[in-house]
Amino acid sequence: MKQRMIAILEAEGVPHGLLTPRETTVVILEKTEGVWDEQGRPRAERERVLASLDEVMNETELEAIPAIEGVEGAAEAVRRLKERGYRPAVLTRGHHAYAVEALRKTGMLDCFDLILGRGETPRPKPYAEALEHTAELMELSPDEIIFVGDHPIDSTCAENARVHFIAVLSGSTERDAWAEQGQGTILRSVVDLPDHLAELHPRRTSVQMMEPDLDYDQ
After folding, report:
1. How do residues 32-58 score in pLDDT, each as one tens digit?
2. What is the pLDDT of residue 159?
3. Secondary structure (DSSP) of 62-88
4. Which CATH number belongs to the domain containing residue 106 in this structure?
5. Strand ranges in 84-145 using DSSP code E only, listed in sequence order
6. Which of 9, 132, 169, 193 could form a disulfide with 14, with the two C-beta atoms 3.0–4.6 Å apart?
7. Going by C-beta distance under 8 Å and a sequence separation of 6 or more, which residues neighbour residue 125?
8. Is the dihedral of CA 90, 93, 95, 101 positive or negative?
9. Which of 106, 104, 96 is nearest to 57 (CA)?
10. Which among 110, 113, 130 is positioned nearest to 121, based on CA atoms?
11. Higher-confidence residue: 208 or 2?
12. pLDDT tens profile 98-139
């Protein structure tokens, strides 16, 4: 997906070699905006290119759906949390349709009270507005949310929004990397969430949470 995006951006005047697929889409777009600012790129032209990028992201995500596999035990874990009164939600930088189809394929679509995808929050992760908007829609305050994620973008978003964060190792970020970021709570996967939260709140039966992001790219 990022290779396709970079090809479009380079064809639109972004210097070759400035962008790399090793960077997150957040960084790629921020660098692009910086170049456009220097070039004095008109807003209408920027929006045209951004629309092309969004189309590429949507297409690539939907192409990836056949390869999606659920984390073993995740569906059962989320259902246990719902039974205890938690309100799981998805906040992703992926397209809404991609998130829905991914959840459908893994048998988890009925587990979530809210699904917010790309373009459905004022600004995406890692900006605070992503979580703040989610909290508003769920009629919650930030201190009622537990945000669970597998990528540094998730922890940065939680920090920006002043929301409690739990890191999981079922993504590409390893334990040492989380520890270097100062993350105190690191779980093997979402499967461990019910037991972990039961230890934290043994008498609580109605706690809201944000469920892990489904992005394969972030």
Report:
1. 999 999 999 999 999 999 999 999 998
2. 95
3. HHHGGG--PPTTHHHHHHHHHHTT---
4. 3.40.50.1000
5. 89-91, 114-116
6. 9
7. 26, 91, 93, 131, 153, 154, 156, 157, 213, 218
8. negative
9. 96
10. 130
11. 2
12. 999 999 999 999 999 999 999 999 999 999 999 999 999 999
Residue with tokens 């692009």: 32
pTM of the model: 0.80
Buried b (16+ CB within 10 A) or exposed e, 112-128: beebbbbebbeebbbbb
Residues 61 and 76 in one domain: no
Q: Do 26 and 57 share a domain, yes or no? A: yes
Quote the pLDDT of residue 202.
64
- List Cβ neighbours of 155 (8 Å cut-off, separation of 6 or more): 149, 165, 167, 178, 181, 183
102's enclosing H/E stretch is helix 96-105
Residue type for position 45: E
DSSP tag of 212: P
Same domain, 49 and 108: no
